[in-house]
Design a protein that fits this description.
Elements: E1 3-8, H1 14-31, E2 35-39, E3 57-58, H2 59-68, E4 73-78, H3 85-102, E5 106-109, H4 121-138, E6 144-149, H5 155-176, E7 181-186, H6 202-212, E8 218-222, H7 236-247, E9 253-255, H8 264-286
Parallel strand pairs: 1-2, 1-4, 2-3, 4-5, 6-7, 6-8, 8-9
């Protein structure tokens, strides 16, 4: 038997942990087997009282427990858009340490949600759906759109946002015509020219858009999976938008719903499991 782990970075906020659990539960229904929602760090500090009495699992303690129970096969599904160091560095380091303690065991890590260079067309469709939903709910035309992500010190992670922006721009132009303006921004970034690949800060870009045209609203296409201190209610992005709107009366910013709640995300995750099973079958046949 194997354990399937759906892993994210982790958060002390209950809404982020509950979101991970909902995605894992939906995926389990698709697959017909248990999917364990496991955060890499932080989530074990959330009070169980905010989690329906069930403490959150974090990566190393969860694996230690399951290894102690004699589970030896694990499939890891990263709930990450791109090649985060959490997956490329932290996870292998912890696995190596656990093998020192427990002996050999099998761990397979699936691809990220938007692996480059081929990308992930379903993720483009999710973002497009969210943009059009927001436009409809707010009663506005989707004329100015800003694709925003958290920001990363890794150029390859930022390139995922850039790939998605190019695909989104093309889809919007095909569906809605050339008048749509789609830009990119980053919620936060490290200082210094070496991190300029991240692009413009969200607050700076919104202030520039307000100065250009205060009457045309901006739809924020949220490249975030779950609510938390960044993308959740009262989080960093909400505060940035509120600050810009306060300073520019009449200017409106409408954040979209997040990626994690879209049913098509389960299609992507199901495909990642199928890819790993196909690769495993090929390996077995070759042996």
């Amino acid at each position: 038997m194997r354990d399937i782990l759906l892993i994210d970075n982790g958060s002390k906020r209950a809404d982020a942990i509950l979101s991970l659990r909902r995605i894992a539960s939906g995926l389990a229904e698709r697959l017909g087997e248990t999917v364990h929602p496991v955060s890499l760090l932080h989530s074990d500090r959330a009070p169980p009282s905010a989690l329906h009495g069930q403490p959150a699992d974090t990566f190393e303690p969860f694996l230690s427990r399951r290894l102690s129970e004699n589970t030896r096969r694990f499939l890891i599904l990263p709930l990450f858009f791109g090649p985060s160091r959490a997956i490329s560095d932290y996870v292998p380091e912890r696995i190596a340490a656990l093998k020192d303690d427990f002996g050999p065991f099998d761990v397979r890590i699936a691809r990220a949600l938007c692996p480059l260079p081929e990308g992930e067309p379903d993720l483009v469709e999710i973002l497009l759906d969210r943009i059009l939903e927001t436009a409809s709910e707010q009663g506005v035309a989707p004329l100015r759109i800003l694709l925003v992500d958290h920001g990363s010190p890794i150029p390859a992670v930022t390139e995922v946002r850039r790939w998605l922006a190019r695909q989104l721009a093309q889809r919007l132009a095909d569906d809605r015509g050339p008048r749509i303006e789609l830009g990119e921004a980053v919620m936060e970034r490290r200082p210094g020219a070496e991190y300029d690949f991240n692009g413009e800060l969200l607050e700076d870009r919104l202030r520039a858009l307000a100065a250009e045209n205060i009457s045309t609203p901006v739809i924020l296409s949220m490249l975030f999976l779950s609510p938390g201190r960044h993308a959740g209610p009262g989080g960093d992005i909400a505060e940035i938008c509120a600050s810009v709107e306060r300073d520019n009366p009449g200017f409106r910013v409408h954040p979209s719903a997040l990626v994690g709640g879209h049913p098509r995300l389960l299609d992507i995750l199901t495909a990642r499991v199928a890819e790993m099973e196909a690769a495993s079958a090929i390996t077995t046949e070759s042996a």
